[in-house]
């Protein structure tokens, strides 16, 4: 069963490397070409889907050996992160200054949540026990959240002196063509 631990760890590491390369080659230049508001919103959207952690209850039902306490900890942390991210996006869309402290709170919550989830997984011997959707979430989504968090920290620090600009991709006013 040792190969399952290596497979999961290796796949997570590969995903992390791929996401970091994508970030460096494509996301960082794209973020630099956007205003602060748009850049933050793009990075926050990744976190909105953290409610995928709710699938841990289904995984537990199907044999994933996580305790009820461990499952609840995962769900509370990730659903709270999803709510914070969506709320920060809503605040950014109306250019509310509350968005920035909320984004920082999300960063702190994500770091804490990641550390406690790793500790819980070690404590409950979960590494290598994931399969199906749980394996996909751990191997593809979790590294994406981590890289997005790093980019979010970078944007919050590097652009802290910039004002919150109007979101550039809001719907443009409709143009009415008059026909003679």
Could you characterize what this model shows?
This protein has 180 residues and is mainly α. The protein has a domain at 34-158. 72% of the residues lie in helices and 0% in strands. It is built from 6 helices and no strands. The chain has helices at 2-32, 36-48, 55-61, 68-93, 99-123, 132-158. The chain is globular. The N and C termini lie far apart (76 Å).
Key terms for this structure?
single chain, 180 residues, mainly alpha, 6 helices, globular
Briefly say what this structure is.
This protein has 6 helices and no strands. It is globular and about 60 Å long.
Q: Number of helical segments?
A: 6
Order of helices and strands: HHHHHH
Q: Report the C-alpha radius of gyration, rounded.
A: 19 Å
The computed structural class is: mainly alpha
Mean of residue pLDDT values: 91
| Strand proportion | under 5%
**How far apart, in Å, are the first and last alpha carbons?**
76 Å
Helix share bin: over 70%
Characterize the overall form. Answer: globular
| Spans where pLDDT lies below 50 across 5 or more residues | none
Major sheet summary line: none
């Amino acid at each position: 069963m040792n190969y399952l631990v290596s497979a999961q760890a290796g796949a997570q590491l590969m995903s992390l490397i791929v996401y970091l390369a994508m970030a460096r080659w494509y996301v960082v230049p794209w973020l630099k070409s956007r205003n602060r508001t748009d850049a933050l919103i793009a990075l926050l959207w990744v976190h909105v889907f953290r409610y995928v952690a709710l699938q841990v209850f289904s995984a537990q039902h199907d044999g994933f050996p996580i305790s009820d306490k461990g499952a609840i900890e995962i769900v509370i942390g990730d659903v709270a992160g999803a709510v914070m991210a969506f709320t920060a996006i809503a605040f950014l869309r109306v250019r509310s200054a509350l968005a920035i402290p909320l984004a920082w709170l999300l960063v702190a919550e994500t770091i804490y949540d990641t550390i406690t989830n790793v500790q819980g997984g070690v404590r409950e011997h979960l590494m290598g026990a994931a399969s199906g959707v749980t394996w996909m979430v751990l191997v593809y989504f979790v590294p994406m959240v981590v890289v997005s968090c790093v980019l979010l920290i970078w944007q919050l620090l590097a652009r802290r002196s910039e004002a919150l600009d109007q979101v550039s991709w809001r719907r443009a006013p409709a143009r009415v063509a008059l026909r003679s």
